[in-house]
Write a structure and sequence with these properties.
By secondary structure, the chain is mostly beta strands. Helix content is 0%, strand content 51%. It has no helices and 27 strands.
Length: 432
């Protein structure tokens, strides 16, 4: 029998991957008329929107953003930026900024929130002529910038991950508005991204850009690209370039999903633009719609509308398939399992928390995962009284008798008089 607590101080469920995806259309002329970005009154105009998750995350997730609609006015200098300004387990805030006097009518923004140690997000900004962009080291070449972005400390893949890039901001001045972001070399420590003008850089200047890159283990991510390249292909018969036509000009792009791993089960998908080419001094209007994923294919309609001269574009997509049964260890928490070899139901005890399931625990306790440098203390009686045992490493199978409290703390804080439970013991014993 395991006794119930008369005072419950908290329970954390063992961590598993968690994800939520969505599309925000609130910064849109039809949805939010006369928002600040539309006024041609100077750079720096911005508006923030908050997105709340349908279900809170157990840990703060990574946020990936991608534009699926860009609608800017027709001045010669066009510029915008989209960034995450804050995030937590309940949601996040996005800031939309007009970086020039040019009116910005709106965006459709696809987003994904992922908690998974095998997934990471990196990003960087570059201002014209700056050799030290925020978030990366850069090599400036004749054919574009090569940015090298190091992975954060919490992402240490054992093999090169897959990488997919999205363009979240650009400021371009001149007769052509062309920009393209592409991933390059991907290693276990860093990823390179090339950002180039793609066509006639003598006719315009890229004054600013902002890119975001999603990284993940190969078995978790399937990635692909749709594009109409190069950007110098002027073709009067191309509906994209018939910019005097008021109607929408759309083409359908699709890709096959041949990897069986990504044809079934829980999957999340997102797409967005990584580059575009437009004739300057006309509206920058690029839209994706009717995005659809089936078992064996993924597709979307992409194009432009009204008085916009679209020469080309690039859009990237990915499918994320989480390993839902994967156990995610925490350096600050121990996990207690119902069955041997870490099976069955479980709960989590974190550093310095006295814990037990709120609804009472009427199941056996037979295996433990204890992080390095931590000690799990198991007390027989409430109020930290009576006999106790101390567990300082993972235990695959061990029967624990009646207990009331559990506490996790660092090895340095251990009581030297307590017994050490070794991994080869089958049954727990109490300190006399």
């Amino acid at each position: 029998m395991i006794s119930l607590l008369s005072l419950v101080l908290g329970l954390v469920v063992a961590q598993r991957p968690q994800a939520e995806f969505g599309v925000d259309q609130s910064i849109h002329w039809a949805e939010t008329p006369y928002h600040p970005l539309q006024a041609a009154v100077g750079p720096g105009r911005n508006i923030e929107i908050s997105i709340k998750f349908q279900k809170p995350f157990t840990n703060e997730p990574k946020i990936i953003l991608a534009t699926t609609k860009i609608d800017c006015g027709k001045l010669s200098a066009q510029g915008y930026d989209i960034s995450v300004t804050s995030k937590n387990t309940l949601g996040f805030t996005v800031r939309f900024t007009a970086t020039t006097e040019n009116p910005v009518f709106g965006f459709d923004l696809a987003w994904g929130a992922i908690y998974d140690p095998d997934i990471s997000v990196v990003e960087f900004y570059k201002i014209h002529n700056s050799k030290t962009p925020e978030g990366a080291t850069i090599t400036i070449g004749k054919n574009g910038d090569i940015a090298t972005i190091a992975y954060p400390d919490d992402f240490k893949p054992k093999e090169p991950p897959k990488a997919v890039v999205f363009l979240l901001g650009a400021q371009i001045k001149g007769d052509y508005h062309n920009i393209l972001a592409e991933t390059g070399v991907v290693t276990t420590k860093q990823v390179t991204v090339k950002v180039s003008a793609n066509y006639r850089p003598d006719l315009y200047i890229i004054q600013f850009y902002h890119v975001m890159v999603l990284l993940g283990k190969p078995e978790l991510l399937l990635i692909g690209t749709w594009s109409q390249l190069p950007f110098n292909n002027k073709d009067p018969s191309d509906p994209y370039q018939q910019y005097e036509v008021q109607r929408e000009r759309i083409k359908t792009f699709s890709s096959s999903i041949t990897d069986p791993n990504f044809q079934s089960g829980t999957r999340y998908s997102l797409y967005g633009f990584s580059g575009y080419g437009f004739l300057g001094k006309e509206n920058l209007r690029l839209v994706g719609k009717n995005y659809y994923q089936s078992k064996q294919s993924i597709k979307a309609d992409i194009g432009t509308w009204q008085n916009s001269f679209l020469i080309g574009f690039a859009a990237n997509w990915f499918v994320y398939k989480p390993q839902l049964n994967k156990y995610i260890p925490s350096p600050d928490c121990a996990d207690i399992f119902e069955e041997c070899y870490y099976g069955g139901s479980s709960f989590r005890v974190c550093d310095r928390d006295l814990s037990f399931p709120k609804s009472g625990w009427n199941k056996p306790v037979k295996s433990f995962k204890v992080p390095a440098g931590k000690v799990l203390k198991v007390y027989q009686q409430e109020n930290l009284e009576g006999k106790s045992i101390r567990i300082e490493q993972n235990l695959q199978c061990m029967e624990v008798p009646k207990f009331s409290y559990l506490e996790l703390h660092s090895v340095q804080q251990e009581d030297k008089n307590e017994k050490i439970v070794s991994s080869n013991l089958r049954n727990a014993f109490w300190d006399e």
